[in-house]
Amino acid sequence: MLTTMLSWSSVLSQFQKIKDYSMIHLVEEVFNEQIRPALAQHGGNVEIIDLDNNVLFIRFYGGCQGCSSSKATLKGGIERVLKQNFPEISEVIDLTDHAKGESPYM
Asked: What value does the mean pLDDT take over residues 29-56?
């Protein structure tokens, strides 16, 4: 019985990884169409790091790394757009080391 439960748990885990992987591709499309063009106007960009348990992890770079408006961009822009398109995404977390930004847009 324990072996069956562990196997089932493994199958569910693999299914979740596949589901997350396909959602990342859909999120990339939204990034490419709606988010990246706006960030590029300020010399910035963003990359998707991971999607885990409906939490999306991102990293800013270019003009967005170290920018004082990055938190507002994350919550008021990126997270809002993504939640409109993907209600199952519960949160977007920024993993950027903003202290190392070379030339943030001011």
From this structure: 93
